[in-house]
Amino acid sequence: MQVFYATQFVLPLPPGHRFPMEKYRLLRDRLAAEVHDVQLMQAEPATDGELALVHTPGYIQAISDGSVDPRILREIGFPWSPAMADRARRSVGATIAACRAAFRDGVAANIAGGTHHAYPDKGGGFCVFNDAAVASRLLQAEHARHQRRPLRVAIVDLDVHQGNGTARIFRDDPTVFTLSLHGQKNFPFRKEASDLDVDLPDGTGDDAYLQALERALDELAHRFDPGLVIYLAGADPHEGDRLGRLKLTWDGLEARDRRVFDWAWQRGLPLAFAMAGGYGHRMEDTVQVQVNTFAVAAAYARRWHNRPR
Ligand SMILES: [Zn+2]
């Protein structure tokens, strides 16, 4: 399974910053040591032209040269630096690369990404550019060169926060289906309308969550016929998360991942996934949730590899 990463795993942040930047390096080290059949590859940065499939030229320019409005920067939550701009581009590049690899191998991943709070003209909530949105539009354009039927993309967003930027970007686009399962009382407090939103009450545990997921995937299958799945496998529904407000256990999250991979596998759909959020009281817990996701994913990648053709 090909797994893409940005060169700067770790963006230098001021002391005491609340974003757990170290988790990317920890995850990468654990994948290299523990998960078999994972091929770690560096992603190319997304170009201006690729970003412009979703983002406004003014915003792309402002992130590139550091002239971004201080209010937008405050909403993003990272100080600007050349490394911040480069990392944001490479994180989009990693999801693009994962989508292309998923068409070859069935399953592929971005070790970061899932930056679903980014809108065309502004970021927010630790998100600069919207990787899943740019990758969807770019893969659609690439697909259109050799296929007559447009590529339809399902974005399955199981980060605990609503994918508000993604919902807004594709609000009027019938070729991309946005599904978001999220905490009703959690950030963002003003939500957008996805194609399918599932609001979960505080304290939702494994059983209620998995039932809600089952219903949502059923409805997705009923309403839409995708050719590619992009999965945001957020670790923040875990009970040990500082921001999540839900109560999923290790087992519950593993069952969640298994269900999504299985849903795509049964339909023969390529699936690319990104890490999205995770803010454990203990950073190791967040990383453990993500290592578990990769272990499940690697098993599905082996199934694809061994399937009869
Ligand atoms: Zn989140």
UniProtKB/TrEMBL annotation:
SUPFAM superfamilies according to UniProt: Arginase/deacetylase
GO molecular function: histone deacetylase activity; hydrolase activity
UniProt keyword annotation of Hydrolase present: yes
Histone deacetylase domain sequence ranges: 18-282
Pfam families per UniProt: Hist_deacetyl
Keywords: Hydrolase
GO biological process assignments: epigenetic regulation of gene expression
PANTHER family found in the cross-reference section: HISTONE DEACETYLASE 12 (PTHR10625:SF19), HISTONE DEACETYLASE HDAC1-RELATED (PTHR10625)
Similarity field: Belongs to the histone deacetylase family.
Protein name in UniProt: Histone deacetylase
